[in-house]
Amino acid sequence: MKVTMIGAGYVGLVSGACFADFGHAVTCIDHDPAKLEALSAGRIPIYEPGLDTLVAANARQGRLRFSGDLASAVADADVVFIAVGTPSRRGDGYADLSYVEQAAREIANAMSGFTVVVTKSTVPVGTGDEVERIIRRENPEADFAVVSNPEFLREGSAIDDFKRPDRIVIGTTEERAKAVMQELYRPLFLNAAPVLFMERRTAELTKYAGNAFLAMKVTFINEIADLCERVGANVQDVARGIGMDGRIGPKFLHAGPGYGGSCFPKDTLALVKTAQDAESPMRLIETTVAINDQRKRAMARKVVRACGGAVRGKTIGVLGLTFKPNTDDMREAPSLSIIQALQDHGANIRAYDPEGMEQAAPLLKDVAFCADTYEVAEGCHALVIVTEWDAFRSLDFARLRGTMAEAVLVDLRNIYDASQVESAGFAYEGVGRASTGWLADAASQAAE
Predict the structure, then answer these.
(1) For the CA atoms of 204, 209, 211, 213, what is the dihedral angle to 10 degrees?
(2) pTM here?
């Protein structure tokens, strides 16, 4: 099949490369000449494990190409995907649909013959209806169907998620569109991937509901972690204890500094706005959004407490900047709020991330970016693990202690056992676990 993907960002590039790997002829459209030049030369503008190899292989075999000529690519396509950004609109938090609407107008004026137009972008309920209205208005004679096909890709494992999905959600009741989508995804039938056909608005809401539920699950375990610290319990054991319940499951029960990234923050906020407009407010999600926003700066206060109650003039080393490992994505990363809060307290910041420093540099002021963990540690009064990259899981504590001003480790991802770190001569502070050693004594004195 001939597929046109409008938007060569994260979703469009991963989806386009995977469809090409299935044997379809895919053209990825983008209006940024610099990005198109880089992609055509084999330079991938995002970090996603395995994506560079996949793109190169399919481009070499002629199944994947990149172009700025939307009109000819749409005219020749059986399926046109809209995979443009839908960021939170500045000022009110609604999803900004201007890129989706512009794509719909351009598609309308270029399509030829029956065309399935698919919204791959995450969009509020009813967006497919608006896309259909725009195309009808721009081209009353057009023969087309608008389908919702939300993506469920996790950054860092997107290719595997696409090729081995939990489910494929397709929102359409149009029989011709169903047949086209079945043919498009036919290679996945060999993996017995469940294909769920449903009404278009239902598919749109399914994406938001899924992300909101996961965000709420993360926020729930973070609040349990706070309670654990107060009552002397261990959040990791609590998470294992409830995660073994088949009705709950173990995923997204890892306490930490709060969620970030391209999806959870904007999607939860957009769902809140949609629900308010529909006069069916979602109080749980509203609270989830508020708690998560507050939590990131609360993690900075944890660092301050671990440093004896003050960090003014001290140097804090931050390990990990991206919102999660195996990506270079800095959107809504907890590190941004944590670093800003520490700077507000007067701290000097040194930082290292295996992939995210180029993306982080324009977002962070007065931060010394270092070549590795051990350069970060030089002269630091505390090290803070913000992102759980594998590179931080086997630190040489003897080497670190020899270069640090004070041996303090604040582990916001709980990747270390407290006794292991303390036996190396460090004061250790995790999340959702009772403080030990001098940190506990300091906390007790502060409470008194």
Answers:
(1) -170
(2) 0.91
Q: Which of 263, 307, 370, 380 is catalytic?
A: 263
Averages of pLDDT over runs of 10 residues in the chain (448 residues) are 96 97 97 91 91 95 96 97 93 91 97 96 96 97 97 94 95 97 90 90 97 97 97 96 97 96 93 95 97 96 96 98 96 97 98 97 97 97 98 96 97 96 96 65 47
- Is residue 113 within 8 A of residue 77, CB to CB? The reply is no
380 is catalytic: no
Residue that is written with structure tokens 């080393």 in the block: 317
- Structural domain total, the chain: 3
Q: What is the 3-state secondary structure (H, E, C) of 168-222?
A: EEEECCCHHHHHHHHHHCHHHHHHCCCEEEECHHHHHHHHHHHHHHHHHHHHHHH
Same domain assignment for residues 175 and 313: no
CA dihedral sign of residues 383, 385, 391, 393: positive
Indicate whether 328 and 218 sit together in one domain: no
Angle, alpha carbons 347-352-355 (nearest 5°): 145
